[in-house]
User: Fold this.
Amino acid sequence: MANADASPDDRDWPAHLEQLETDRESIPWPDRETLLPLDWRPPGAPAPELLSVVELLAEDPKWQVRRRAAATLVWLPEPVFSRLMAVFSRDSHAFVRRDADRALDRRRRGEKNALSRSERPGDLAADYTSMERLYGSLPTRKARRIVEKHFDLLVGGTVHNMRGLLTPIKHYADELKELAKGTSPNRKLVNQHADAIASRLADLEQFLDDMRAYAQPIPSQRRRERLIDLIGEAAKSARRHFASTGHDPARIELRMQVPESLTLEVARHQVLSVFTNLLRNAFEAFRSLDVETRPFWIAVLASTDGDRVSIIIEDNGVGFGEEDLQQIREFIPGRKTMKHDGTGFGLPTARRYIEGHGGTLDIDSQVQAGTRVRIVLPLEAWGEEAE
Assistant:
């Protein structure tokens, strides 16, 4: 009979396996429970017999034994990890499921720490390798296909938008070449074409800036900021931008219900850019309503719920229909709706920044009724990089 009192590193796993396979009950269940001590992991690659013991204990009739087996998810290699993760997720006992979830969290943290020490950031191949170790090959293949599909949409939309910007530039450049062939080119026409090229180049520059903003990593540094200060600064910027387009921001009432004492830990520049973008969108929702006389308003409301803050930015502007809303909710960068200008990166970038802070961003809209954006953020710094 195998010695169950020996140190885990010195145990005779082939003997334990034979005993369990022959007669599980020959080892009393308290001894079966102690076969796999909590917080223990093998010093090297686990022996095949040890892995087989873990799989047998994962099906043990005693939940106390299965709970110990669940803790091994921290170090189990594939494909045993994937098989047992599925088993424990369906376990009838809540303690077993809870310990499996805890072990999975520890495994994820360990993988992330190992990657940060040994692999350079942004290494996509390393990310896929890590994901395969954490979740198995099938979810990784599915995730890769989703990423590739998203990439195809992004590239296709970017090419389409850039062609839309470059085509008129080429047209006006060709016109200028023809004008230059004449002995006395029309100065007014030359200036018009040059202005048109300069305008399109500015649009192209904005498009590239928005692409770069979308691709920027979320800074690890967080600083406590007053929410009302961030929204106030964003509102001033949005008002100035709206006025620069020839519209009167004074016609639009800005309603603020944000507690002055409310603070949260954020990467200031990125969260400020989110609020600025959303408030710009809200102001621009009134551009086509200049002839109307009804009251126009934009409301910003913030409230806390436990350790999170909910921020709602709402307007009673033009809104947009269900088809446009469905497209916007996909948050694919570079994709624009038929009724709205811009580069198509604003909302996807905003959502990416908010999710990088551990939050969520949702949008709803209705034609001639307005648009409502809801952001939920943690009050404290979130994620593995929180300080």
About this structure: The first strand starts at residue 223 and ends at 226.
